Amino acid sequence: MGGKKRICDEGEGVWLGSSGVVLIMMILVVQCSTSIGSVSAAAQVPAMFIFGDSLIDVGNNNYLSSLAKSNYYPYGCDFRAGPTGRFSNGRTVVDMLGNLLGLPYVPPFADPNTKGTKILGGVNYASAAAGILDETGQHFGQRYSLSQQVLNFESTLDQLRPMMSGANMTQYLAKSIAVLEFGSNDYINNYLLPSLYSSSYIYTPPAFANLLLNRYTQQILALHSVGLKKFVLAGIGPLGCIPNQRALAQPGRCVDYVNQILGSFNEGLRSLANQLNTNHPGAIFVYANTYAAFGDMLNNPALYGFSVIDRGCCGIGRDRGQITCLPYSVPCANRNQYIFWDAYHPTEAANAVLAWRAFNGPPSDCYPINVQQMALI
């Protein structure tokens, strides 16, 4: 299986080097016929409800008074709608995951047009700079924290109830998938900024992870209590290897301390998924091992067609990681060979790998089952 293959969506495409990698070849199963604004007849689930931060924000921060925005070129330079508030050159992980599930692009909650039938395929509540803790990222201005995102979801439920009967609503929510991706900002925009936040003075790394997991559990259970039954809980990737952190390290190295302190959170999140599965029969909680999937790309880049792993495609300063991608700056031309788009976020090509591994990966990627298996339940 030589050559290159394309992951496509209605005229968009990202080409991924193959080098005989069956995993990436299988991305070709992504259909190109998903419509915008209505759920496809081939949809495997009714809807996807998305909670998280800038890794999966699709434009919510456009409507907030925030410094954390990406609604300008060259963000979106490879996305057919241009700059939309996605923090990448193209699509996010959840865009691609939704496509694999046969869903249209899930619209941002804050967009005034996200109403009526447009919400039937799900809503994206993710907000750049958001964290599990309400105070995380406050130096960027407004953002929807995890707790606010849960409240926003409950307002969506108020819109959905008049659109279907009680029994249909119960089944709709039970069959839909909730994707939650949190924690990165609680470290890079809280714990690791001692000049702005006191958390690292108060908590050891394990104690801070425990604080995050306790708060996280409360909100996950709140979502479960209103009817959601299928949860994808994404772990934190190797933050010590993002360009923003590499710019602080020895040349050519990741920040080992940062990667090490994430272990308590990721291991705890996997254990939490086990505990929730035991305590809530009839629901399924899946842990997506983002750290391992991203680490594999960093350790074996050529396997996925990547050649640049240590700097951003767009940005300023050392490793293009000290100042993130500014308006109308010129990004690298060979974007599909880069893992990182800017100081913090993956390229569309890297997102494609993460989406596929979550959708179809083994238990080491997605535990205890993957998203494709979850959709069949």
From TrEMBL:
Gene Ontology, cellular component aspect: extracellular region
Subcellular location: Secreted
GO molecular function terms attached to this record: hydrolase activity, acting on ester bonds
Alphabetical list of Pfam families matching this protein: Lipase_GDSL
Entry keyword Aminoacyl-tRNA synthetase: no
Lineage: superkingdom: Eukaryota
Keywords associated with the record: Hydrolase, Lipid degradation, Lipid metabolism, Membrane, Secreted, Signal, Transmembrane, Transmembrane helix
GO biological process: lipid catabolic process
Transmembrane region(s): 12-30
Family that this chain belongs to: Belongs to the 'GDSL' lipolytic enzyme family.
Protein name: GDSL esterase/lipase
Organism: Prunus persica (Peach)
Lineage, broadest ranks: Eukaryota, Viridiplantae, Streptophyta, Embryophyta, Tracheophyta
